[in-house]
Amino acid sequence: MLAVLLIGALSLLVYAIIRYYTFTGRYPKGPLPLPFIGNLLEYEFKAPHKSLAKFGKENPPIYTVFTPIPFVQITDFALIREAFVDKGDDFAGRPTVKVLDDAIAFAPNAGVLSSSGDNWREQRRTSLMILKDFGMGRNLMEEQVRSSIANYIERLSNTADKDHVDVGWPIQVMVANIINETLFGYRYTHDNCQPLLRFVEDTKKFIATSVFRESPLQFFENLSDSKALFLGMMFPVLTKLPITKWHTSGRFKAAMGKINEYIVDNVDRTLKEYDVENEPTCFVHAYKQRMEHNEFLDQTNLYACCSDFFLAGTETTATTLKWAMLIFAAHQEAQEKLRCEIHAVVGKDRPVAMADQTSVSNRFVFFKCHEKYMNFFRCPKLELASSRFNDSPTFWGYKIPKDTWINADIHYLMANDPVFVNPEEFRPERYLMEDGKTLRKDLVERTIPFSIGKRACTGEGLARVEIFIGIASTLQHFKISPSPGMTADLIPETMRFPRQQTLKIESV
Ligand code: HEM
């Protein structure tokens, strides 16, 4: 009897393994997956770029990694462009994963970031139209950014101990303020930003005590750090069982709920001030005005869009600026050269404007360089620039199943594309031709931190203004160096966040 049971169980196991490999065989070949758990054991969830760098080198430019759900990675620029631009419509969707919808989406298929199909198209189109109306990429929004940056510069100037300045928090407030003002029409001062502070602190405390027991901003880190979440995505039943429910989805849902409270409160309050007679001056009012005439626009999507913009638009830009400060602290010569150019073009007192970028960057393409450098460090989104096939088209000879995650591995591309010679070096001049002035279009074209194609970043115009004016204004006013006795620590934390550290700032 026991022998029969054993043979039965073994046969079932063999059958399940054969089925599993039939399933994995439908995807582009990559590192050999183990039965059922795929590449889970060899995937570093705290530093995915390390695993992906290894896999990228050992596999063709399109391969699959199973964590355990299949992720198809594309690591070659021409292929990324072919998929996301030439076949843009096929790659414009996001995978529908119920577990993720339940755990972290504001509502299923709502907003811009994680929605698909007609709803995504309408939310994205409307959001972009509103931002353009407010002057994204033009002077109006630039003025708003400039004024937030002026507050930040003032904040740094008033810091008592200039040998030990943590620029992280002022940058965070500055960037959050820009989004806050765009969405809700008001801004905090650095000395009076209690609600914003409370929001961040609450989230931090909540995360620290009841959810992750780690440091602030760990929400994003833990998203990718959590093998349990990935297991839940592969085996949704785990998100229903009493013991595994909390780890696979519950804690993410709880953290996201807390974060979204801030959004819901602000949207509701802003809506109360809406007056149909007045010209909208913030995103919420402009969206509300359009709700009258567009069936896709409703309150749930409004909440979701604001949540997306807040999350996608603050952490990315703040992290970029924090890295910039560290990188310039570590590269005094480059910093000095750039400051000389800023002073020559802008002077010491006039606020920096976007129009200055051409004059400055023709000689020193730091913005382009910075984007490039940023890629070496981290940006979780870069590693998750993803889409899905709409309807199983054939790509590179593979008929990839519908709803598969497809990642353009921008990080890998920037670190391994042969056009970037010695990619780890901070060498802004790499973007210039021999004449030292003309931009090298081949490099600029392949520098794609905002991704490309139909799902490319909707906030790129705003982010470029924030980054250019943010860096140029800081260096216009301050010399940045490591705190006395220290060196700038450029080794990234989990998920390539910069490590928390103080810097020395001196007025120039
Ligand atoms: C340095 C700053 C930023 C970087 C590096 C960045 C990068 C990215 C990347 C790589 C994507 C994914 C594109 C894809 O799926 O192919 C994305 C999407 C997005 N970003 Fe950004 N972003 C930045 C700033 C911003 C800002 C300031 C905003 C808002 C004002 C924003 C809003 C969005 C939204 C809404 C999406 C989703 C677009 C869609 O799915 O259609 N981002 N971003």
What does this structure look like?
The chain has 508 residues and is mostly helical. It has one domain: Cytochrome P450 (Cytochrome p450), CATH 1.10.630. Helix content is 55%, strand content 6%. The protein has 20 helices and 8 strands. It has helices at 2-24, 48-58, 77-86, 98-103, 117-133, 139-157, 168-184, 194-211, 218-225, 227-234, 242-272, 283-291, 299-330, 332-345, 356-363, 366-377, 380-383, 410-416, 441-445, 460-477, and strands at 62-66, 70-74, 386-387, 394-395, 398-399, 405-408, 478-482, 503-507. The strands form 3 sheets. A 4-stranded mixed beta sheet has the order 1-2-6-3, with helices on one face. The chain has a two-stranded antiparallel ribbon with strand order 4-5. The protein has a two-stranded antiparallel sheet with strand order 7-8. Strand 4 and strand 5 (398-399) form a beta hairpin. Helix 5 (117-133) crosses helix 12 (283-291) and helix 6 packs antiparallel against helix 7 (168-184). It is globular. 43% of the residues are buried. The protein binds protoporphyrin IX containing FE (HEM). It comes from Pristionchus pacificus (Parasitic nematode worm). It is a peripheral membrane protein. Belongs to the cytochrome P450 family. Heme binds at residue 457.
